[in-house]
Design goal:
The longest helix is centred in the N-terminal third of the chain and has 27 residues. α1 packs across α6 and α7 packs across α8. With 275 residues, this protein is mainly alpha-helical. The protein is elongated. A hairpin with a 2-residue loop joins β1 and β2.
Length: 275
C-alpha cells in the first residue's frame, strides 16, 4: 500500500493529503493522460474536459484508493470509464477495423523501400508524412481498438497492465492491439515510396508469413529486438513499416499537458473537497 493511501484521519484521507497526491499525479501522469484523451476525443477542448473530469473524479474518490493496484492503473481505470461515458458515434467512424486479410499486403505488386534504401532527407520527409497519416488513422479506429492501442503504444502500458485497466483478458488486449497496429502500419506505409521493379514472389506460404508477423508483434509488445535471417523482402518491408508506426507512436507519448489546463486543474483541486 502506498504511503499516500495510508495517510488517513478519523474521517478518511485528509483533504491536504488528497490534494498533495493529486497534484503529484497531475505532474507524473498528466501528459500521458492528455495524450490518451486527445487521441480519444480528437479535439483539444474535449480532451481537456475529459482530463479535468478524470482528475477531479480521482480527487473526490481518493479515500477509496486502498493500494491494491498501482496509482497509475487506478487513475487510468477512471480514465477508461470516462472515455466510455463520453463515447458517441462520430461521423465517418468505421463500424469495424477490417479483416486480417484486408490489413496485410499479400499479393501487392510493389513493396515499400526499407530504411536502408532511403537517404536521410527522404527518411525525414517520410517520417513527417507518416506522423500525419498515423495521427489521422488513430482517430478513425473504433473505440474498442483505439483505447487499448493508445494505452499500449503511446502511454506505455504492458499488455498485462492494459488488460488490468480495461478489465479484459490479456489475449483480447493483445489481439486488439495487434490489429490496430496493423491498421496504423497500413496508414504509414502509404507515405513510403515503392521499390523499383515488381515485388519478388513470396518466399513462404501465407501461414508462415503470418507466424513471422505474430512473432514480430510479440517482440514489439515486449520491447525486444526481432532478429531473423529467414524473412523475405516482402516481410522485411512490412516489418519496417510496423517499426515506423511504433516509433511515431512513441514520439506522441512525449507530448505535455497544456500549461493552462494544468493551472486550471490544480485550482479546481484546491477548491474542491473529497466526497
Amino acid at each position: 500500500m502506498s504511503a499516500m493511501a495510508s495517510s488517513t484521519d478519523s474521517d478518511g484521507v485528509g483533504h491536504g493529503a488528497a490534494e498533495a497526491a493529486l497534484q503529484r499525479l497531475v505532474d507524473e501522469h498528466g501528459g500521458h493522460l492528455y495524450q490518451l484523451a486527445f487521441r480519444f476525443c480528437g479535439a483539444r477542448e474535449e480532451a481537456e474536459d475529459l482530463v479535468q473530469e478524470v482528475f477531479l473524479s480521482a480527487f473526490r474518490s481518493w479515500g477509496e484508493f486502498r493500494g491494491e493496484a498501482s496509482e497509475r492503473t487506478w487513475l487510468y481505470r477512471i480514465a477508461a470509464r470516462a472515455c466510455q461515458r463520453m463515447h458517441r458515434k462520430r461521423s465517418g467512424e468505421p463500424e469495424h477495423i477490417g479483416s486480417l486479410d484486408a490489413l496485410l499486403p499479400f499479393g501487392e505488386p510493389l513493396i515499400a523501400l526499407v530504411p536502408a534504401e532511403q537517404d536521410d532527407a527522404l527518411q525525414q520527409q517520410i517520417h513527417a508524412e507518416a506522423r500525419e497519416r498515423l495521427e489521422r488513422a488513430i482517430t478513425l479506429l473504433p473505440d474498442e481498438f483505439r483505447v487499448p492501442l493508445v494505452l499500449k503504444e503511446i502511454v506505455g502500458f504492458s499488455v498485462r497492465e492494459v488488460a488490468e485497466v480495461l478489465g479484459l483478458e490479456e489475449g483480447t488486449v493483445r489481439s486488439r492491439v495487434h490489429r490496430a497496429r496493423l491498421k496504423l502500419r497500413a496508414a504509414v506505409d502509404g507515405a513510403i515510396p515503392r521499390a523499383a521493379g515488381a515485388a519478388p514472389p513470396p518466399a513462404y506460404d501465407e501461414q508462415t508469413c503470418l507466424d513471422l508477423l505474430d512473432a514480430k508483434q510479440e517482440a514489439i509488445d515486449r520491447g525486444v529486438p526481432f532478429r531473423s535471417d529467414v524473412i523475405c523482402e516482402r516481410c522485411r518491408s512490412v516489418f519496417a513499416s510496423l517499426d515506423l508506426a511504433h516509433e511515431v507512436c512513441r514520439e506522441l507519448a512525449s507530448g505535455a499537458m497544456p500549461g493552462t489546463l494544468r493551472e486550471r486543474l490544480l485550482k479546481e483541486i484546491r477548491g474542491a473537497g473529497p466526497a
